[in-house]
């Protein structure tokens, strides 16, 4: 992927159909040891309620972040709370640590707040996601059991005052129904 070194302006926008080939290259670059391309492809074509944001620099794709709308089941009943799952997030290796990931995440959180999403969940490094206000979540259980080591990585952030569900299980669309994504 060619990157223009002359342009420093990063633009955050919705994913465009012409980005799809670049998205594959981006994920292979950002996650050299993990193949997240099948998940991302499924999320983008599934028709599920997905917020898919890109970061471009000089017209080149340099970052991508996905927020998937999910539900919460309380005692096997689906509650009417609309929540979201953040991930994956990827920034081209050569451009990491320049605030691009942070800008995509902030933009997504702002949009979901306006859309009335109650809470956002993420399974990721707490030292990164705590920057955005995510905190370990012991109330809502992820769809697949986490190993002891991964438990602190299960975090959430409330987007609306007074709309936090106190217990339940996160219900995810089919793209996320793969135990290997949660181990
Ligand atoms: C994680 C990722 C999306 C962050 O995007 P980014 O644009 O590099 O991050 P930002 O510039 O917004 O933030 C940079 C800060 O976060 C820290 N950071 C970046 N990735 C981190 C991680 N996985 N864990 C902890 N801290 C991390 C950096 O050290 C930096 O810290 P500093 O501000 O103290 O220097 C990006 O580094 C990436 O694509 N990594 C590989 C793929 C990945 O692990 N994705 C997340 C899991 S889905």
In short:
This protein is α+β, with helices and mostly antiparallel strands and 183 residues long. The chain is built from 4 helices and 10 strands. Strands 1, 2, 3, 4, 5, 6, 7, 8, 9 and 10 form a 10-stranded mixed β-sheet that branches.
- Share of helical residues: 10-25%
Q: Give the SSE order as H and E letters.
A: EHHEEEEHEHEEEE
Number of domains: 1
Low-confidence stretches: 1-7
Q: Could you say what the CATH topology is called?
A: Aminopeptidase
- Report the C-alpha radius of gyration, rounded: 16 Å
What portion of the residues fall into strands of 2 or more residues? 25-35%
Bound molecules: coenzyme A
CATH homologous superfamily (4th level) name: Gcn5-related N-acetyltransferase (GNAT)
Q: State the helix count.
A: 4
Structural class category:
alpha+beta
**What gross morphology would you assign?**
globular
Could you tell me the mean pLDDT?
91
**In angstroms, what separates the terminal alpha carbons?**
31 Å
Instruction: Give me the count of strands.
Output: 10
Give the biggest sheet. Answer: 10 strands, mixed
CATH architecture: 3-Layer(aba) Sandwich
CATH first level: Alpha Beta
How would you explain this protein's 3D organization?
This protein is an alpha+beta fold. It has one domain (10-182): Aminopeptidase. Helices cover 21% and strands 31% of the residues. It has 4 helices and 10 strands, in the order E-H-H-E-E-E-E-H-E-H-E-E-E-E. The protein has helices at 20-30, 37-45, 100-114, 126-129, and strands spanning 10-14, 50-57, 60-74, 77-78, 83-91, 119-123, 135-136, 140-141, 154-158, 168-171. Strands 1, 2, 3, 4, 5, 6, 7, 8, 9 and 10 form a 10-stranded mixed sheet that branches. A hairpin with a 2-residue loop joins strand 2 (50-57) and strand 3. The longest helix is centred in the middle third of the chain and has 15 residues, at 100-114. The chain is globular, with a radius of gyration of 16 Å. The structure holds coenzyme A (COA). Residues 30-31, 87-91, 96-102, 124-125, 127-128 line the site of coenzyme A (COA).
């Amino acid at each position: 992927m060619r990157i223009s070194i002359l342009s420093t302006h990063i633009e955050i926008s919705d994913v465009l159909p012409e980005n799809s080939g670049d998205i594959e290259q981006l994920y292979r670059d950002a996650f050299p040891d993990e193949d997240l391309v099948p998940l991302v492809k499924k999320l983008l074509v599934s028709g599920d309620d997905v917020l898919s944001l890109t970061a471009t620099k000089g017209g080149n794709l340099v970052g991508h972040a996905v927020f998937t709308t999910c539900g919460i089941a309380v005692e096997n009943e689906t509650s009417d709370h609309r929540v979201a799952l953040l991930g994956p997030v990827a920034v081209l290796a050569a451009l990491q640590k320049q605030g691009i990931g942070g800008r995509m995440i902030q933009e997504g959180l702002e949009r979901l707040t306006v859309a009335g999403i109650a809470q956002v969940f993420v399974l990721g490094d707490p030292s990164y996601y705590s920057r955005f206000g995510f905190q370990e979540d012991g109330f809502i259980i992820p769809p697949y059991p986490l190993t002891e080591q991964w438990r602190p990585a299960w975090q959430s952030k409330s987007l609306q005052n007074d709309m936090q569900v106190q217990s339940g299980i996160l219900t995810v669309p089919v793209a996320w129904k793969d135990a290997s994504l949660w181990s």
